[in-house]
Amino acid sequence: MPTPEGEHRDGNHFVGMHLVGRRNVQGGYTRISDQDGRELMVTCLTDPLDSIVVDDTRVRHSVTPIEPLNPGQAAVRDVLVLTYDTVVAESAGQIGRSRRRNN
Ligand SMILES: [Fe+2]
After folding, report:
1. Ligand 1 centre and the CA of 9: distance in Å?
2. What's the 94 CA to ligand 1 centre distance in angstroms?
């Protein structure tokens, strides 16, 4: 299944996509594009802990559909997605989430 939302941002500062496992899969290519949809890179996470970390404020991401290599067996692609937000000291003694950059 592709990312249901298609090309998108997650709404955080950074997004880490880390492959947990991939079995009997064809497809599942990760596409990174700029804000205007121009492709910047396409890659495939093939081995456990293969990772991509993107600046979610600057790029969009999506994943192509997967299908089983062997149609008689399940196709599995597990990815751990971790999102990060920058935390800054906004004033003395106060820590908070930084303002999003909108560009
Ligand atoms: Fe996402």
Report:
1. 6
2. 30
